[in-house]
Amino acid sequence: MSDALFRNEPVSSTPYVADGVSIRLAAPLKRYSLRARTADALETVLNVKVPQKIGATEGGIACLGPDEWLLRTPAEAAMPTGTGLPVAITDISERSICLVLEGPRAAEVLMTGCPLDLDNFAVGRATRTIYETVEIIIIREGEDRFHVEVWRSFAAWLWTAFTTAASH
Amino acid sequence: MILIHCPYCDEKRPEIEFANAGQAHVARPLDPSSQSDEEWEAYLFIRANPRGRHHERWRHVHGCGRFFNAVRDTVTDKFETTYKAGEPRR
C-alpha cells in the first residue's frame, strides 16, 4: 500500500471522456524487458509460451523485435532472473505508463499522430511505433480498445495530444 | 510518406519510424594498427556519394530496433530492396 501513497502519476487519474472515445490511465503494471537471441531460450527460463513473430502477443508477452519482448502483468509475481543463462530480464515497470483508449473513435484518435494504418491492425497485435515525435508501444487489446505504453516524461504531452484530438 | 520494408518485421512501415545510418558494407579493418593514416582516414571518413543506386544502412529505430541494409536510388528516393544485416551485398 505504500506504493499508493508515493505514486505520482504524470497524467490525470480522471478519465477523459469525449464523443466516441475515452482516455484513461491504466492501473499500475509490472513490466519486464525480455532479451534473448531466441524465444526458446526465454521459454526455458520463464516456463511460458513466448511469441515468435514480431508483433504477436501471447499471455501478456509482446514480441517487439527479433530479440526483444515486453512482458506486462498486473500481478506482483516473482520473476526468474535467468542468472548464468543467455537471457536478460529487466524490471522496467516505472519507465512507462499505460494510457487506455477505448471507444469506436479510439483508432481515429491514435491515427491523428501515428502513421500506422490502425484500421488494418489486428486485435492482439503489438508494436513499437511513433506518435508525432514520441515513441510509443501500441497494443490492440480489443476491436475498440488500445493500450498505449509511453515513457513517463512524454506522458503529459501525449495526454494533451490525445485529449485535444479526442475533443475535435 | 515513403513506406520502407523492414526485413525483420517483414512488412512495409512508415518512413518516420526509421533512421538512416550512412553507407552500408563499410568493413572495419581487422588490424587497425597496421593501417596507414591514409587508409584509416579512408575507412573513417571517406564515403561514396553516388547519383543513383546507393547501399545504405537503416535502422527501424521506432519499431523492432534493428539495423538492416537497403538499396536506395538517391535521385528518385525509391527503395529498390532491403535485406538483413550480414547478408551479402545486393
TrEMBL record, chain B:
Pfam families: SoxD (PF04267). GO terms for molecular function: sarcosine oxidase activity. It is an enzyme of class 1 (oxidoreductase). Coiled coil: none annotated. Keywords: Oxidoreductase. It comes from the Bacteria. Gene3D superfamilies: Folate-binding superfamily. Its EC number is 1.5.3.1. This is Sarcosine oxidase subunit delta. It comes from Sphingorhabdus rigui.
